[in-house]
């Protein structure tokens, strides 16, 4: 049975309209809160299985997902694939690092799983960490791909949903010009100067 994932996101209240400050520093009239579709374990499991099927023929040793948004779906993808899961955390300098005793064996083939890919900033950080630790990124997955390029560092984004929402620089934002109140919904600090 093929599920209508867009309908699920709408039903769970995961798609919002308004004026949002993204972690990239850009503004958008729409926001995706994947935690709303992951709060029900059966939905999280089904979404993880759906993403895992996209790499069914690929040799994967491990799944890595960034905090905070990628942890639940990354775990579900790893569970569906039957491979270990780990997540990096920010260190004192703000860089992503492996902590809690996590390590990445040299040569491990890694799938990176995100909740939402927009600018690819966090995804690039995770891919760089995987490479620095000796792993080989072999796949990139997301619940939602709202990026313009649909790939990050040469890896195509395999997503359950591909959504197109405009983003604006703060200086050129029509919502700011119309004095629509700005909301910062995410958990990550805004990156200064990111585009």
Instruction: Tell me the major beta sheet.
Output: 6 strands, mixed
Give me the Rg, rounded: 17 Å
CATH third-level topology: Rossmann fold
The gross shape turns out to be globular
Set down the secondary structure blueprint.
Elements: H1 5-11, E1 15-21, E2 27-32, H2 35-38, H3 41-53, E3 62-64, H4 70-81, E4 85-86, E5 89-90, E6 96-97, E7 109-117, H5 121-132, E8 136-145, E9 151-152, E10 155-162, H6 174-177
Parallel strand pairs: 3-4, 3-7, 7-8, 8-10
Antiparallel strand pairs: 1-2, 5-6, 9-10
Helix pairs in contact: 3-4
Compose a concise summary of this entry.
With 195 residues, the protein is α/β, with parallel strands linked by helices. It has helices at 5-11, 35-38, 41-53, 70-81, 121-132, 174-177; strands at residues 15-21, 27-32, 62-64, 85-86, 89-90, 96-97, 109-117, 136-145, 151-152, 155-162.
How would you describe the overall organization of this protein?
By secondary structure, this protein is of the alpha/beta class. It has a single domain, classed as Rossmann fold, CATH 3.40.50.2020. The protein is built from six helices and ten strands; from the N terminus they run αββααβαββββαβββα. The chain has helices spanning 5-11, 35-38, 41-53, 70-81, 121-132, 174-177, and strands spanning 15-21, 27-32, 62-64, 85-86, 89-90, 96-97, 109-117, 136-145, 151-152, 155-162. It has a six-stranded mixed sheet. A two-stranded antiparallel sheet has the order 1-2. The radius of gyration is 17 Å and the shape is globular. The model is unreliable at 191-195 (pLDDT under 50).
